[in-house]
Amino acid sequence: MPGRTRDERIDTAVLAAARTLLDAKGYAGLTIGQVAASAGIHRPAIYRRWPSKRHLVAAVVADLLGLEPTPDTGELRADLTRSMRELVAALRDTSLGRVLPALVADLATDPELREQLWSTVFGPRRETTARALRAAIDRGEIDPGTDIDFVLDAVAAPIYFRALFGHLPLSDELADHSVDTVLAAIRRTG
Question: Of 62, 65, 71, 90, which is least surrounded by CB within 10 A?
Fold first, then answer.
């Protein structure tokens, strides 16, 4: 006997409630019971979808960040800048900037959660940027010997570092500077 069809309305209501509560209460203050009450959903329906608060918050992170951040318009700098500015905006202008440090701390002790976050959020996002970089290599825009994995780490690292430590502001200028610094290192010369 096949299982029930997943009701996307429940997913939408739960994610919206969780996002609102994260904005108001933060990661530590969020409970599944609060999410259930706010969404008008029974707790078991939430636990069937997300086995823990951590997993639900990971789904909210995916929702906030989106999964297709880097377009490939043929203008690598513009594409990367747009992607990094969107990342800055998500970390600066939503609860994501406050949630991410606590969620990262949980990743250290929860390999399943780490794999979920990688496979559903960061892996797909990285792949879109990797496609844009490979296309730039094909166009002769950047050096064919470019270590794409290193570039993927390097272009976003200053943004995530500031989001995690909050020692300096997140800004569009940071996104632009990060992109320009990385591109200066990998642009094809001659």
Answer: 71
Which residue stretches of the chain have pLDDT < 50? 1
- Tokens describing residue 188: 């094809």
Distance CA 166, CA 97 (A): 9
Of 47, 56, 53, 18, give the one whose Cα is nearest residue 35.
18
**3-state SS class at 30:** coil
Enter the pTM of the model.
Answer: 0.87
Instruction: Give how far the C-alpha of residue 156 lies from the chain's centroid of Cα atoms, to the nearest Å.
Output: 11
Considering just the CA atoms, what is the radius of gyration of the chain in Å? 19
Gap between the Cα atoms of 157 and 42, Å rounded: 39
- The token duo for 13 is 């209501």
Q: Is 98 exposed, middle or buried (0-12, 13-18, 19+ CB in 10 A)?
A: middle
Do the Cβ atoms of 183 and 177 come closer than 8 Å? no
Which pair of tokens denotes residue 175?
Answer: 């996104």
Give the CA distances from residue 8 to residues 3, 12, 14, 46, in Å, rounded to whole numbers and listed in that order: 15, 6, 10, 12
